[in-house]
Design a protein that fits this description.
Shape: elongated
Distance between the termini: 34 Å
Largest sheet: 5 strands, mixed
Radius of gyration: 31 Å
Number of domains: 3
Number of strands: 10
Helix content: 40-55%
Order of helices and strands: HEEEEEHHHEEHEHHEHEHHHHHHHHHHH
Amino acid sequence: MAETTFAAPDFASFLGLDALGLTVTGMRIDGGGALVECRLQVCEEDAFCRVCGAQGAPVGTVARRLAHVPVGWRPTHLLVRLRRWRCQGCGRVWRQDASRAAAKRARLTLAAKEWAIRAVGVEFMSISRVAAALGVSWHTANEAVLERAKDRLINDPGRLKGVEVIGVDEHVWRHTRKGDKYVTVIIDLTPVRDRTGPSRLLDMIEGRSKQAFKQWLQERDEDWRSRIEVVSMDGFAGFKTAAAEALPGATEVMDPFHVVALAGDKLDECRRRTQRETTGRRGRKDDPLYKARRLLRTGAGLVSDKGWERLEQLFADPHNTPVEIMWGVYQKIMAAYRAKAPAQGKTLMEKVMQTLTTGVPDALEELKSLGKTLAQRREDILAYFDHRGTSNGPTEAVNGRLEHLRGIALGFRNLTNYTIRSLIHAGGFRQQLLHP
């Protein structure tokens, strides 16, 4: 085994103070935290007045207390002694420039701000936990994280470069009856299509209307909009209209998740209507239709032998014929999306649409309603098979991450803060934070 060599212990290097231009002169354990006394390295220009250029005379020091990166989860603060000078020409008084260690009037060192945003964006820590580790108030930690995120990540002019496929969906940002609780999230699906990485959050805007999405698109420059090839969305007509008007060269795609969900909802409506017509009441736990509600929504390839026996018994009752027909259409739609070849899936979906266009009895009202919706969004649904990999599934995944964020923070009251925190959490900045 090779012999390990060690350098002489250097407390300043261990704390990263040498990168801040600080020299350690003392330390003490103050309660549960550590207080490190430092001095700022003197530069030649510090001793000369920036107004008249005359040399200044030293007039003592002033102390500045800064929160630094915690060591062993022990809050570590720096007591930085800054030299003061008085100009011998104009009488102006100034102190050493400490911008290398911390911003003006800041409570945290630059290293502490970097640690805080990594703790939030990489380790998914709450602001309360970050504040406790730094030994500062919640508001101080929160302002530092938001400020650092805007300066380093969100305001980066290259953040939206390379976007060619976007997804749009609604998201509930707060559970309250007061005010608009919905926001529209825009996702970059280009890495998913190109198989180069996961999707990332581009922005979050208040409201879930056509106008909100259209205005966001129009605020982007013409060159960026011309590069968008595909817009993946759910069944909301407002998103489709906004994309068609603001991105005339892009293809609108209604993603498989929402098409299958739409067919599944119609299947549930048919089951509940059949239950009421047969028994005169809502389903109960021992009713065959109610007991099979989850089995009916299961793909045919995932149904067990016992499940098939239950389905055969259920469909043997002539009263359940509407449910059987609706179930068959639901399975055909899923089979179209699960086809190995896109051309085969597109053919299957076209056959389903053609079947539902004509010849559907009025008694099957849910099937007629489904056929009408599929006909209205025909081009958007079939476009998926020409643009595989543009599903809104990654968009739903980002929504799930935002739900996780809201749980960590125990809710948000300020939408601006929520937007910035969401971008830190799901904006694809992990590698950038890990390797600054």
